[in-house]
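Ligand-bound model needed. iron/sulfur cluster.
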Amino acid sequence: MSLQPRTVSFVAGERNVFLHILTACNLSCAHCYINPAQHGTATLSRERLAAWIRLFADRRKKTNIIFLGGEPTMHPDLPYAIEVARDCGYTTTVDSNGYLFHDFLERVDPERLDYLSFSLDGPDPAINDPIRGPGVFAVCTENLRRAVARGFNTSIIYTVSSRNIEHLPRMVELLTELGVHRFFIQVIGLRGKSATSPTSPQQRLQVAPEHWLAVVPEVARQVAARGIDVIYPKVYLDPDEVFQCAGRVAENFFVFPNGRVYQCPLCEDYPLHSYEIRDDRLVPTGGINEARLFSLDIPEGCVMNKLLQPDTICYDDRGQPLHRISCCLLKQRITGQER
Ligand code: SF4
Ligand code: SF4
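Prediction:
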């Protein structure tokens, strides 16, 4: 096998359900994307949780469900939700900040959860904790070690920004030492606090294209060489690559506890959702919504990126974009090699 990255194209019929089961969290990360004004402050009841999991279930198609918050382990019924999801045929993932409340590791059978992901934004406390909070690195890595020892399939999610991109190469050793199975590299988004905080303007958090391309693919190759699967966003399309909007060719549902259902994560700070859940039924929204925007073809690639983050696009003398921005849901994967 080679260590060449493979673009994970949208597969016809692929379905992902990103279910935010509450918006509360014990942390206050600098780049938190939760926006209570748009997503509410509700926690789904046990009954509603089960109803909404069943609402999106479709046994004819392979469907992934990702339990999110806020911090999803703060919900006492998360182990129950995992069981409901398994019974519906989903591939199940929990994305946690690492605090693992309510004895999560003891109450969940590692055989019943496909992936347990931990968010970490630096290879040591000096880098991670100014972004995620004092003491977070120690708690997160300690619980990750416990999860690996209990037999969970673990991932780390690292959100790259100008505050931590220089330290990404040092994650190679840490991932190896912790025994992590998968590594997700994400790019800082322009949502929630990173979009609005006067102390962290997007210009200071986002990384330039040449910086991203100089660092991320090489680190990904090094991590894969240690036997760890790596997934990272494509971000910039090569000149001969075809642009595709996931909103047109895949099924993604970003579900919030106030009932909003988006198809594009870039739209989550706006009332542009395609659907709403009313009385536990999925209802299309009318008027201007994200689905109306997906069909616009522009030379810059992703239309929402052009509308919301125009500063990320560079142009040549003729006014043509230097890079086309790929769909933020388009990923590259390098399968880990045997150590
Ligand atoms: S752990 Fe997640 S939900 Fe909680 S503050 Fe950090 S980014 Fe936001
Ligand atoms: S990120 Fe852009 S390309 Fe992807 S679904 Fe949203 S609008 Fe479409």
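The CA atoms of residues 233 and 331 lie 4 Å apart.
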